[in-house]
Amino acid sequence: MSNTNKVKQFLAGLAAAGGAFCVGTAMGWSSPASPRLVEEGQYFPITPNGMSWIASIVTVGGAFSCIPIGYFMNKIGRKSTMMALVIPFLLGWALIIWAQNFAMMVSGRFFLGLAGGAFCISAPQYSAEIAEKEIRGAIGSFFQLLLSAGILFSYVVGAFLSVFWLSVLCGIMPIIFAAIFIIMPESPTYLVIKNKNLQATKSLKWLRGYHYDTTQEIYELKSNLSEDCKEKNSYSIVIKERASIIGLVIGLGLLYFRQMCAINAILFYSTDIFAASGVGLSADISTIIFGIMQFFSTLAASILVDRLGRRVLLLGSIIVMTITLFAIGTFFYIQSIDPETAETLGWLPLTSLCIYILAYPVGYGGIPWLVVSEVASKKAKVFTSPICGFFAWALAFLVTLSFNDLANLFGIAQTFWIFAFASFIGILFTFFVVPETKGKSLTKIEELLSRGGRKEKQIEVNNKFVLK
């Protein structure tokens, strides 16, 4: 496959990740919108508690959409499912743009969550199925890259425009996504599953180049899927075989530590950390700086993921985050017992925050979703990914909702230390449980998991090397 044309694979991956840009705008919207809705009273009176629900209800919508999305991907296809998600996106933004009361605003955010949660499942799976193994990591990282770009878009636009016009511009993005993605091919894997071999051939030729001989790849897809398709589609498939169980454990573990590395806590306290550092930046400017750093760090990850591998980036990311979380917690502890000393340490939380912001996107920001799409076995893929998605969004809601309670109960410093300890456990999980999937075909990854995730070893048998 080394002679294939990879340009169109990158184009299809970017087009699919356009949905992630839309998700990013929804996630980033609440940061600039919050002070304008609560303090300035744009639209109608909203209390801080009400704004918390407006911001966090997105995660509830995301959790709700994850379970049925597997059925739709298997029923109507990956591409058609993603195109259909434009409808809840548009409905959500319409409710927000013309909101007359709190219920309309919350409902709009809920619909945005429905579309966003489904995109977090469908887009990575589509990207994994259209890409060759040599570039699958780079294409898979486009999702987090454009997600970061969407968040940054909301930060920048929201700093200069009213909530109404910010929402209008965000609402245009799903239309642009649909106009671009509609010309992309359906996943060849899905077409083979549905015995649409001619269409699968056309899809592969579009993706690999019109001179590409699809015979071998079609044969491999059919061979790998022939036994799988005999299984009755059911969530029980997930627990029927070793590879599915291990893949689910890896996926759930990565997404658990993705939340427990305290990204929501960092987002919530970023303004306070900038203020404590004494640099005197406004909330809008500090938020934009945050978004810019996150975007370029994610860009670096997309370049490195197929060179250094998934495990190296995940390990490096969570090790650095553990150290910086402990440092931020230490600063807040010193601030609580000796404010004068804390004033001289303003550089500590700011430096820790900047390093954290750079480290998170490189590893745990986007790679967990990529690995989930890779380690889900063929039989269980349409069920494993939604289970992981539901878990991730539900956990995000619980962590976001409970953070203030934890801070009030234990203190801000102790809360950051709790997350630092959880991240330390994540280091052990990543090192001992997560396999390296770089450069391996999806079939080879499944074979690796069926052996318990053990690395391939070469042994000599009668002067011939074979894989064990």
Automatic annotation (TrEMBL):
Annotated ranges, domain Major facilitator superfamily (MFS) profile: 12-438
Q: Which UniProt keywords apply?
A: Cell membrane, Glycoprotein, Membrane, Sugar transport, Transmembrane, Transmembrane helix, Transport
What's the protein name?
Facilitated trehalose transporter Tret1
Membrane-related topology note: Multi-pass membrane protein
The family annotation for this protein states: Belongs to the major facilitator superfamily. Sugar transporter (TC 2.A.1.1) family. Trehalose transporter subfamily.
Major place of localization?
membrane
Provide GO CC annotations from the record.
plasma membrane
A Pfam family per the record: Sugar_tr
Q: 4Fe-4S: is it a keyword of this entry?
A: no
Which stretches are transmembrane?
52-73, 80-100, 106-126, 138-157, 163-184, 245-269, 281-305, 312-334, 346-371, 383-403, 415-434
